[in-house]
Amino acid sequence: MKLNTELAARMRGAAGFIFDMDGTIALGDSKSGGHRALPHAIAVLEALKANGTPYVVFTNGTAKPPPAYANSLRNAGFPVEDSQMLTPSSSAAAWLSQTGTGKVRVLGNAGCAAPLIDAGLDVVGPSEEAEGVEAVYTGWFREFDFTALEAGCHSLWNGARLVTASNVPFFATETGRAIGASFPINVMLTAMTSKRPRILGKPSKVAFDTAMKVLGLPRSAAKDMVVVGDDPALEMRMANAVGAISIGLATGIMSSDASLPEKDRPTVLLNDLQPLLDVL
Ligand SMILES: [Mg+2]
Questions:
Q1: Based on the domain organization, do 130 and 103 belong to the same domain?
Q2: What is the number of domains present in the chain?
Q3: Distance of CA 179 from the midpoint of ligand 1 (Å)
């Protein structure tokens, strides 16, 4: 497959690139607990680095803090600095700080909470007794239990707003799709409190704006951005909402774009990254 001339030119002249991680440039390696690069992915990032085109990797996973993911990608051969790695907790930390939110209950593990703590937010543990919680933030949390459910509900009933890292049911792994932790937690919290989660990871504008800030690009450059991902409801939706080019990959969640609504349809769907590498 080859990209058409117009699209190829837009890719070459792109202001910057936002890559998804799982199912797009890499897959989790169950044996090592690290990552394995997908075909041509390392070469694509190397080409951007050589051209001086800024790029970030934005995963919707919050199991680890961004530097831990960056390290895992470097071990797999990728040119990714800690500062080029983002998770929803990066954009959540930015949003919670901007909105002047003080106390945040994190229904998530240590990796999920780390960026919020680093940003100076007053973070309360999942089951910790606390008054005056202003937001409940949900993320990767396989240890979720009834005590955490009760604590989260009490904070929400007492006026806290519900915010989340991600609200999609699945993500891609080496052995197929896996359940995203925050989705079922959000379902329970909404059922109990009638509060719906505000998403702060992909596909939110908060996530896109956070990436642009890290890339050092103005919001006006959105139309010259390229977003590469495997999940129509995450990367494609985020890119389409701001007028960026969306490159879909059939290496993860998405296998066909035929039945997708327009807002989730990629500008172009690729079987692998070879056509992108060819134009860079
Ligand atoms: Mg993905």
A1: yes
A2: 2
A3: 12
